[in-house]
């Protein structure tokens, strides 16, 4: 059995739950429930190394090239029985030991190649994901997802693999560990199940249950196509739209939002639309974070950006303006220029930045303030640090001012249906102005 984790190694992604959960399984059983392939980087990398690096159940492959990773996976594949069928069961189960293989940051192509030999993806995100794009990528390779069935991940986690989201870290760790063990016991090859004495009379149907989950995963992923996405966009745009201006905080590829905007540009241009992007091209490297922090400070009174987008609108003369990320640099004055232009406009809520002062801490819908008041924002602070209170106060002022302009945007786009009532509440727009536009592969 092969498990894979390919997110940021961060608390909001539940990576600490994965590390602690696997540690608990090890202490109880003396072995891992399967091979675990870990991709990604982040603050919790040290948790993984501290817990497992000195054990025989860990191998650091972060220095491997894509070719060396392929060789490693092929070597592990000698134990892979993906072609087993009811007519041709294996002669004997695999006797090797399971390990955690840490690959660090790798390209999407490399991750997809490893997904092809994985059985389950671990995605126990604490954070209320607005959409499960990584989960969708996993499903497209026929790899079912284990995680908390909430937020944007709800459509992508079957009830058989849903981990109950409980009140404490201890309970969630135990719940995840139990689910991993139950899955590995239920879906491992029957002969290996029989050898271990798990579940009594093992039948070949247990193996076919994973096949069913895998086929269902691919069926779900097949719905999220570029063609479907384009049809939805055409329904939103005014008739005769030819020129679209995409406005976003940064045009530099810094993360998921910027990458998604570039994907949208390619998709729209393929359909014959003339598309241009407006945003701040900040430098990458060691000073990138400094520029982003300066952008946050400057955003409330960002006159320069407002003047530049006004000039861009006058020169390009778009039929539609589509706002993407506007909470880190463009902010109120830039949005005000869009509203003043009286051009048909859309805005996408990629994350919870306009719904909560601390988006990465939002673990359930109950934590999204129904009334975006100053008290609700300050009440979300879990610190005695006066600087954090001051920053939260400034964030509230920014959201308050921006919200007044966003009300005049024609269409408000959310990536998952659960966000519809929250946008209606906080931006104060009617539900008919909110559209669900899910991502595509």
Would you mind describing this structure in some detail?
By secondary structure, this protein is α/β, with parallel strands linked by helices. It folds into two domains: 2-223, Rossmann fold; 226-436, 3-Layer(aba) Sandwich (Rossmann fold). The protein contains 16 helices and 13 strands. Strands 3-4-2-1-5-6-7 form a seven-stranded parallel β-sheet. Helix 1 (15-29) links the parallel strand 1 and strand 2 (35-39). The longest helix has 21 residues, at 386-406. It is globular, with a radius of gyration of 24 Å. Mean pLDDT is 86; it is low at 80-96 and 193-206.
Largest sheet: 7 strands, parallel
How confident is the prediction overall: mean pLDDT?
86
Radius of gyration: 24 Å
Alpha-carbon distance between the two ends: 26 Å
Task: Give the SSE string.
Answer: EHEHEHEHEHEEHHHHEHEHHEHEHHEHE
* Overall morphology: globular
Mind telling me the CATH class of the largest domain?
A: Alpha Beta
Q: What is the CATH fold-level name of the largest domain?
A: Rossmann fold
Strand order of the largest sheet: 3-4-2-1-5-6-7
Unreliable stretches (pLDDT < 50, length at least 5) are: 80-96, 193-206
Helical stretch tally? 16
Q: How many distinct beta strands?
A: 13
β-strand amount: 5-15%
Number of domains: 2
> In percent, how helical is the residue content?
40-55%
Q: Which oligomeric state applies?
A: single chain
Q: What structural category arises from helix and sheet content?
A: alpha/beta
